[in-house]
Amino acid sequence: MYHSAKENGYDVTIASPQGGNIPLDPESLKSMLIDKLSKDYETNQDFMKLLQNTKSLGEVTGQQFDVVYLAGGHGTMYDFPNNTVLQNIIKEHYEAGKIVAAVCHGVCGLLNVKLSDGEYLIKDKAITGFNWFEEAIAGRRKEVPFNLEAELNKKTSKYEKAFIPMTSKVVVDGNLITGQNPFSSKEIAKVVMEQLKQ
């Protein structure tokens, strides 16, 4: 998403729950998951400095963005679901008609977001996210705190997944855009950029 946003002339703010350094998940850097573009960013010192000096969610509260994008990685399953600051940022932007997008495990940040009417944001929404079979393929079922697919299915009957695991799947429901797994990253970025131009 960062690459597509910069390529299309957008300013990008990178934030994390506490601010400061965002550690990279070593599993996400394995050769099966990482393409040349991602590898180039991993060795780009300027980009890595951005990841080491992120703003905290508290610092960006109240700011308006065209898109709120939740990146993936297994760590998000611990950091995102119960973060009320993140929930408020998502709620405010979603209700303002701004794009809220999430990919892979980052989708877990949508689980507990409630709108002003008290309903969950994802209630009755078409959505996708890293599924339980993909978690088995990744060998991480014992490491994750919960089954993301099962939790999504508790709150919406419109969970979707690709027929073939570990292939791209992007689901759009109004201004909510979700990608299933790391292989959906390029497609979700493309879809978000297209929606921004509308």
UniProtKB/TrEMBL annotation:
CDD domains associated with the record: GATase1_Hsp31_like
One GO CC annotation: cytoplasm
Domain DJ-1/PfpI residues, every copy: 4-195
Substrates-to-products reaction catalysed: methylglyoxal + H2O = (R)-lactate + H(+)
Pfam family, one: DJ-1_PfpI
The keyword Protease appears for this protein: yes
Stated family: Belongs to the peptidase C56 family. HSP31-like subfamily.
Protein name: D-lactate dehydratase
Organism listed in the record: Komagataella phaffii (strain ATCC 76273 / CBS 7435 / CECT 11047 / NRRL Y-11430 / Wegner 21-1)
